[in-house]
Amino acid sequence: MPPLNKKKKRKNRVGQFLPADSALPRGQDSTAGSGIGFTEAFWVWMKIGWLSFGGPAGQIALMHRILVEEKKWISESRFLHALNYCMLLPGPEAQQLAIYMGWLLHRIRGGVVAGVLFVLPGAAIILLISILYVEYRDLRIVEAVFFGVKAAILAVVFEAVLRIGRKVLKNEFFVAIAVAAFVGIFFFGVPFPLVVIGAGLAGFLGGKITPAKFQIIQPEKSVDDDTVLAPDYALDRALEQGKLDHVAPSRARALKVLGCCLALWFVPVIALAITLGAGHVYVQEGVFFSKMAVVTFGGAYAVLAYMAQQAVNTYGWLSPGEMVDGLGMAETTPGPLIMVVQFVGFVGAYRNPGMLDPMVAGMLGALLTTWVTFVPCFLWIFLGAPYIESLRGNRSLSAALSGITAAIVGVILNLSVWFSLHVLFSELNEIHSRGMHIQIPVWDTLDPWSALLAISALILMRFKVGMGKTLAVSVVLGGLIYYLGPGNT
Asked: Is 149 inside a domain boundary?
């Protein structure tokens, strides 16, 4: 007869084994189950929003550093699992990752707060710069401030490659996948979706042939291989104890999410079309950027050329030079690079105000384009994340996602090199040969001050100086160099 004090185990809805008495009391709010206060999380998401410079590579590295390494809220395996799902989605993957993390911690309200705060600082800054741009065209102060930021972000991105590479590239198979991803994108311009599909297929097949070598994304197991152990991470501990029941898939919940998000996405555009007509600039912007939200696989870099061509040549919202200025704003302000859509929407509506004051029209255009660009991100996460979480224990999926994780290292390295070329050099030569498209720097155009700032920022980060302090030092030094340096850089 078994001992009386031995408790039976039951399997919860996300595939983990729990003690029989660990269920939540009926009606208990599981948002408190993670052990992380909502107010504390709010200020962390605010911090991430204001420090999210450097494009997706720097933003993902920032979240990893804060959530996994510093706060220890989320384990490495769960972070990578969520990241891989976000990399498969259209739209800005870094913001979607923030939504995913916020949803895991504090349900839908946590995801909304994390996603909104991730883009709000950048949106506010770009709106302000857009107003100054059309009124004064004097961005010298802004350029001075962000001269140092660019160099610091270069260090952040390289630090991300080193940190994530050490954790992910555990054997020669994953190194080969990462190298193949980098070569495919950087030298041959292979579309990002094909890189992801190829890496996932390689991981899936590798998992069938040598399972032990293709399981990066897997939770640690206890000696009886039943209970998931992650005592150092608040979220994983809460899941182990069954305190976060919202991660389980629910058809009723999925239908509610689908209905609400689709209404938030399309009702404003339909209302504008009925009221103003299909040819109005607001309707054109709403429809065009809604399409962009669906096809922007691979992040902003994959679709910027298409967006610029349509905005300049097809719709005539702004000139080529103004489009370049908008990209510069987005690259040197916090938030996703795709935030350049707000500048495009502002200028397009400012130039075609109709019966409104041009400034009011511009601000409404900026709001509309931002709305239809980022609302879909919440839909993808709130609808799909519960199902992705339920598949964490699937070995075939884990192997496929592990292959994608290795490819992400190559993708981030590609972004690092791309960013370095554009920050450190003022001129690049393009070489087209045998299907390859390579950008080679003109070494005479190397900016030694940017290089010096980048090296200084990298040294600060290697000595564990915080992200905020590193950026602050770089901004001050960059501003001084910009105004006082040789040649008045």
From this structure: no
| Domain assignment of residue 282, yes or no | yes
Q: Which of 94-98, 141-145, 175-179, 296-300 has the lowest mean pLDDT?
A: 296-300
Identify the sign of the CA torsion 321, 471, 82, 412: positive
Instruction: Please indicate, yes or no, if residue 447 is contained in any of the structural domains.
Output: no
pLDDT tens per residue, range 218-258: 554 433 444 444 456 888 777 777 677 788 888 999 999 99
Instruction: Quote the distance between the C-alpha of residue 372 and its chain's center.
Output: 17
Mapped to the 3 state alphabet, what secondary structure does the chain carry?
A: CCCCCCCCEEECCCCCEEECCCCCCCCCCHHHCCCCCHHHHHHHHHHHHHHCCCHHHHHHHHHHHHHHHHCCCCCHHHHHHHHHHHHCCECCHHHHHHHHHHHHHHHHHHHHHHHHHHHHHHHHHHHHHHHHHHHCCCCHHHHHHHHHHHHHHHHHHHHHHHHHHHHHCCCHHHHHHHHHHHHHHHCCCCCHHHHHHHHHHHHHHHHHHCHHHCCCCCCCECCCCCCECCCCCHHHHHHHCCCCHHHCCCHHHHHHHHHHHHHHHHHHHHHHHHHHCCCCHHHHHHHHHHHHHHHCECCHHHCHHHHHHHHHHHCCCCCHHHHHHHHHHHHCCCCCHHHHHHHHHHHHHHHCCCCCCHHHHHHHHHHHHHHHHHHHHHHHHHHHHHHHHHCCCCHHHHHHHHHHHHHHHHHHHHHHHHHHHHHHECCEEEEEECCEEEEEECHHHECHHHHHHHHHHHHHHHCCCCHHHHHHHHHHHHHHHHHHCCCCC
Over residues 281-290, the pLDDT tens digits come to 999 999 999 9
In a domain, 263, yes or no: yes
How many distinct structural domains can be found in the chain?
A: 1
What is the extent of the structural domain holding 280? Answer: 255-378
Nearest Cα residue to 95 out of 389, 338, 384, 260 = 338
Is residue 470 within 8 Å of 440, Cβ to Cβ? no
Q: Which two tokens stand for residue 336?
A: 């996703």
